[in-house]
Write a structure and sequence with these properties.
This protein has a single domain, classed as SPOUT methyltransferase, trefoil knot domain (Alpha/beta knot). The protein is 36% helix and 18% strand. The protein contains five helices and seven strands; from the N terminus they run βαβαβαβββαβα. A seven-stranded parallel sheet has the order 3-2-1-6-4-7-5. The chain is globular, with a radius of gyration of 15 Å. Its EC number is 2.1.1.207.
Length: 152
């Protein structure tokens, strides 16, 4: 199970997500351009010393990430507020990549089209979205629960 972030633009969220990946043993991918340098103090503060423990791959572009993914054969699962499939009803595989969009703008149409599945975390009507770090934690928790206990 892997986490990918499409052009993240809030360093604290990215640092928090990478810390989560380190703690859960999940590989992480940042699809550039990010809205901050990895030397950003807020990014480093949120990730703390956990950043040294995460397996992080930076991809210079969406095209580079897709080339890499095509060579690996991984499914790409996009988490978006514009999906109809509840993330709890989806059947995950251990080789899946869970993809989350930019906090300020989501993902491009090309990313939506490339996704093998589009999943939503349902929230109360009238509200826009969850914080991306919270969404990653919820999605990772459900996906890992399923692949570690496949009877469920």
């Amino acid at each position: 199970m892997q986490i990918a972030l499409f052009q993240p633009d809030i360093p604290q969220n990215t640092g928090t997500i990478l810390r989560l990946c380190a703690c859960l043993g999940m590989d992480a991918h940042i699809i550039e351009p990010a809205g901050f340098p990895v030397s950003d103090r807020l990014f480093r503060r949120a990730g703390m010393d956990y950043l040294d423990h995460v397996r992080l791959t930076r991809h210079v572009s969406w095209a580079a990430f897709e080339d890499w993914r095509a060579g690996q054969g991984h499914r790409l699962l996009l988490f978006t507020t514009k999906a109809a499939t509840d993330y709890r009803d989806f059947h995950y595989q251990s080789s899946d990549i869970l993809l989350f969009g930019r906090e300020s703008a989501g993902v491009t149409d090309a990313v939506v089209e490339a996704a093998d599945a589009r999943l939503v975390i349902p929230i109360k009507a009238g509200l826009r979205s969850l914080n991306v770090a919270m969404s990653v934690a919820m999605a990772a928790g459900e996906a890992l629960r399923q692949v570690r206990n496949p009877q469920v």
